[in-house]
Amino acid sequence: MATIVYCSLNKTAQTTVGRCLTSHLKGIASRAPGESGLLPGARWFCRGTSVRFMSHGTAGRFAAGGARRGALVLSGAAAVTVAAAVAGVLANANHFQRAEMATRISLEKKEEEGEILERCRGFMSAPVTDISVLEKRKGDMRTRMEMLIMETQADFCKALEKVDGGTFKVDRWERKEGGGGISCVMQDGKVFEKAGVNVSVVSGYLTEEAAKQMRSRGKVLKGKDGKLPFCAMGVSSVIHPKNPHIPTVHFNYRYFEIEEEDGSKQWWFGGGTDLTPVYINKEDAFHFHNTLKEACDKHHSQYYPDFKKWCDRYFYIRHRGESRGIGGIFFDDLDSPNQEEVFKFVKSCARTVVPCYLPIVYKHLNDSFTKEEKDWQQVRRGRYVEFNLVYDRGVKFGLATPGSRIESILMSLPLTAKWEYMHKPAEGTREAEMLEALRNPKEWV
Q: Where are the transmembrane segments (predicted)?
């Protein structure tokens, strides 16, 4: 059977065609970075005996109308020979570009119709909701969302464990008012000072304070005898690396459902992914934002520009007059055009958390840093803490909800941070460049 190779290469590799591997070479792609001499985190599409590798470098993305310009049809030994040639070229390419190209290749995930029990075997823990209940209401949005957030938690934790070499502590907790969660935390690792990936599935009645927050967002809620039954679930993560050249990343994707007095239900989704670097790196910023943009563009051309602006507005530290980081996407109360379409969009976003972040981690894994750079990281972490405790909607809602688990709510805070009185970086420094970008949000894509 012929193997089709699609290549989009930078100038260095324009004369090389692509990489084809027959099925007996698939094992190479699964080795740890460095073992195969190929690309860290590479993924392979396999259909029958053919394998497709698609590379999208910063300088070599597909041009409109020319996606198949570099396609060849090869078979047998010829495919392997070309694969070896391309591997040689790519091995000498820039590390970030190699990591970016490799990580942007994603395996198609098993779809919703997969068996609940079989999918649960790959999670960090059994789901919060009993598997028998999930099986009975397989098509219900609560079940589908819980499976998605459990899957997102597992995928991200395993990717982080691979690069760090450490292991997440898996901590299950229950909420007497209804539901519970799974907190996965890795502290003082080789790469990450603190990495937390939390899943929560809670239910009960909204408090008066929580209901006020909903009304302030334009939600008209009519409860029975002042009570509003609700179900809320989501996955959230904050990663604080040790190296100041590896950015902090945050993501959160959630679903909310409320039953009103007449038995009707209101529902909405929210979430986003954003990056908080200590120093500006334009390649990192482009990769991060472009990965999110591609996920958004699959669903609506206005999603990325609208949600990027929303992110810049939301993650803003008003008392400092600066953003928390360089943004990403953020949205809330999303309930149109319909539940199925919004869920598909949220699923696309959730599946970018590994490919938008891990290439940046690999790029800066062995970067050296000075004491002054570490001190600047600690100051920027102080700003991160200020935003989370003063403005973050999720933290405020969690603290206002009876039975909430404080440890899980505050897992987003770093192990270390500092506040220097009247701290101001010198003009012309990289620290001043970072501050300028935070005070004047930029378009990175």
A: 71-91
